[in-house]
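Input record (Table S2, row 113):
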Amino acid sequence: MTDTLFSKIINREIPADIVYEDDLCLAFRDIAPEAPVHILLIPKQPIVKVSDATEADQSLLGHLLLRAGDIAREQGYGDAFRLVVNNGAEAGQTVFHLHIHILAGREFSWPAG
Ligand code: AMP
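Output record (adenosine monophosphate complex):
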């Protein structure tokens, strides 16, 4: 996998508003927020997208979902949040390092656009 913007954020080569970090993942505020809370949660291990993950990533993917819930609840909107993962360019992915969008603080319509 080639270096992306997000690996530069992990390596502190470019700045970000980091809200959570542990050995496996990093969360920071999206630079162009689509909601009052818009945080990106990424694995430190560079996986391009969900469909590139393998059985070996099972525990890491579970960790990401659990931390996403924790981070979302800490933002002050209780359990009202949305998690989004764009998989592939045709589904809207623009940065090719797997990330979970954590959105909260407004109403969300369905289906997503
Ligand atoms: P996606 O379109 O699902 O790949 O999401 C990529 C997200 O990264 C978008 O919501 C962008 O606004 C966000 N983004 C791009 N550059 C940065 C940056 N330097 N810091 C924080 N978020 C960024």
